[in-house]
Automatic annotation (TrEMBL):
MF term (GO), any: phosphoribosyl-ATP diphosphatase activity
Oligomer and partners: Homodimer.
Keyword terms, alphabetized: Amino-acid biosynthesis, Cytoplasm, Histidine biosynthesis, Hydrolase, Magnesium, Metal-binding, Zinc
GO terms for cellular component: cytoplasm
Superkingdom of origin organism: Bacteria
Pathway connected to this protein: Amino-acid biosynthesis; L-histidine biosynthesis; L-histidine from 5-phospho-alpha-D-ribose 1-diphosphate: step 3/9; Amino-acid biosynthesis; L-histidine biosynthesis; L-histidine from 5-phospho-alpha-D-ribose 1-diphosphate: step 2/9
UniProt keyword Hydrolase, yes or no: yes
Protein name: Phosphoribosyl-AMP cyclohydrolase
EC identifiers of the protein: 3.5.4.19
Sequence positions that bind Zn(2+): C87, C103, C110
Amino acid sequence: MANSDTLEREQGRAFLPKFDANGLLTAVACHADSREVLMLAFMDDEALTRTRETGLAHFHSRSRGKLWCKGETSGHFLRVEDILVDCDQDALVLMVRPEGPACHTGAPSCFYRRLDGDVLVTVKD
């Protein structure tokens, strides 16, 4: 049987983000119109707070160990229109309007290849 904290997190109205042992949540950015998956990244409490304050997607860079605003160097910002929260509040979907390609490679989405057997094949639009 679920305890009251679990019930509140899974069925209540309070936003109680459940960060992992490293203080992170998984965040998937999807295009607000097409619903295409654009990228996956991680958010710590600071990134989540800055995203909510500014309307621009902020993430925690695991490789650099610091906060980054998507687009801060490229100009390809992700403007957040909505934040969807999963059932146990440990993952988010950011519905965004991209201002340019979402992927650092210049592709519109980071998910521009699919697995075909043991080979990666570029996805055609």
